[in-house]
UniProtKB/TrEMBL annotation:
Origin: domain of life: Bacteria
Pfam families noted in UniProt: SBP_bac_3
Keywords for this protein: Signal
Organism of origin: Bdellovibrio reynosensis
SUPFAM superfamilies, alphabetized: Periplasmic binding protein-like II
Residues of the Solute-binding protein family 3/N-terminal domain: 39-261
CDD domains: PBP2_Arg_Lys_His
Keyword Signal: yes
Name of the protein: Basic amino acid ABC transporter substrate-binding protein
UniProt domain Ionotropic glutamate receptor C-terminal: residue ranges: 39-260
PANTHER family: ARGININE-BINDING EXTRACELLULAR PROTEIN ARTP, MEMBRANE-BOUND LYTIC MUREIN TRANSGLYCOSYLASE F
Length: 261
C-alpha cells in the first residue's frame, strides 16, 4: 500500500515537471523568435556622401548603408535606418534609441570606452582641402589659418592637434557639408575630413579646389557600433561582415563606390 502511494506521488510529480517544461518551451521560443525578428534601429548621420546621404525623397543611401544591409541579410537582422545628427549620435546607443550606428565612425580608444565596435570594415585617412589658388601646400602651414571641421570628428582632432583644442581658428560645424560650404564661401582657409568624403566633394569641384595629404595623419578604420556589452549583436554583425567579405558582396559594393582602388 505504502509503495503504491509512493509510486503514484513520484509519477505525479514527474508528470507535473514534464508538463511544466513543455509549457515553458513554446513561450521561450517565441521570445527568442521575437528578438530575432525585432526591427533594429540604425543611426547614421546621413550627410557624409558617399558613405551615407539622403536622397531628395528622404531615403538613406550610400556605401555604409549597402554594407550594413548586406550584413543584415546574412545574419537575419531586420534594419531600419534613421538619419541622426552626428552630435549626440553616440549617446543614442546608451539611451537605447538606436541599436546600431554606422556612420563612417573611426574606431578609437576613447569611443571604445562607451560603445562596442565590429571588426573594421573600411580604411580611411584625413585629407585637407583648400581653394585651388591657396598658397598652403602642407598641413603645418595651416597654423594661423582658419580650419573648418565637423565637431567631434577625427578631423577636429587633427586640427586641434595643430592649433590647440581651444583655438578660435578652428571653426566647428554640425555637419561636414556645412564646413565645405564655408570653404566655398571662403569663411575658412581649409577643411579637414575623411579622404572618402573630400574625394567625393572634389569629384564635382576639381576646378576650384585641391587636396593636401599629410604623412603624419594616421590610418583610421571604420567600425559599426552597438551598445557596450551587446555581444550577441556584435557577433552577428561580425559574422555577417565576414560572410560578405568571403562571398564577394563586400568587394562589389566597394567597387560600386570607390572603383578599383
Ligand atoms: N571618421 C570620422 C570620425 O569618426 C568622421 C565621421 C563622420 N561621419 C558622419 N557620418 N558625419 O570622427
Amino acid at each position: 500500500m505504502m509503495r503504491l502511494i509512493l509510486i503514484s506521488i513520484l509519477s505525479i510529480s514527474l508528470f507535473a515537471s514534464c508538463t511544466k517544461r513543455t509549457e515553458e518551451e513554446p513561450s521561450k521560443a517565441t521570445e527568442a523568435q521575437k528578438s530575432q525578428n525585432a526591427e533594429l534601429v540604425v543611426g547614421t548621420d546621413a550627410a557624409y556622401a558617399p558613405f551615407e546621404s539622403e536622397t531628395s525623397d528622404k531615403s538613406i543611401v550610400g556605401f555604409d548603408i549597402e554594407i550594413l544591409k548586406a550584413i543584415g541579410e546574412k545574419s537575419g537582422l531586420k534594419l531600419r535606418f534613421v538619419n541622426t545628427p552626428w552630435e549626440g549620435l553616440f549617446n543614442q546607443l546608451e539611451s537605447g534609441d538606436r541599436d546600431i550606428l554606422i556612420s563612417a565612425i573611426t574606431i578609437n580608444d576613447e569611443r571604445k570606452k562607451v560603445m562596442d565596435f565590429s571588426e573594421p570594415y573600411f580604411e580611411a585617412v584625413q585629407l585637407i582641402v583648400v581653394p585651388l589658388s591657396s598658397k598652403i601646400s602642407k598641413f603645418s602651414e595651416l597654423k594661423g589659418k582658419k580650419i573648418g571641421v565637423q565637431t567631434g570628428t577625427t578631423g577636429d582632432e587633427v586640427a586641434s592637434g595643430l592649433l590647440g583644442k581651444t583655438s578660435d581658428d578652428i571653426k566647428r560645424f554640425e555637419g561636414t557639408p556645412l564646413a565645405l560650404q564655408e570653404l566655398s564661401a571662403r569663411g575658412v582657409d581649409a577643411v579637414i575630413a575623411d579622404n572618402g568624403v573630400i574625394n567625393n566633394f572634389m569629384a564635382n569641384n576639381k576646378s576650384d579646389f585641391k587636396t593636401i595629404s599629410d604623412p603624419t595623419f594616421k590610418k583610421e578604420f571604420y567600425g559599426i557600433a552597438v551598445k557596450k556589452g551587446n555581444t550577441e549583436l556584435i557577433k552577428k554583425i561580425n559574422e555577417g561582415l565576414a560572410a560578405i567579405k568571403a562571398d564577394g558582396t563586400y568587394d562589389s559594393i566597394f567597387k560600386k563606390y570607390f572603383g578599383d582602388k
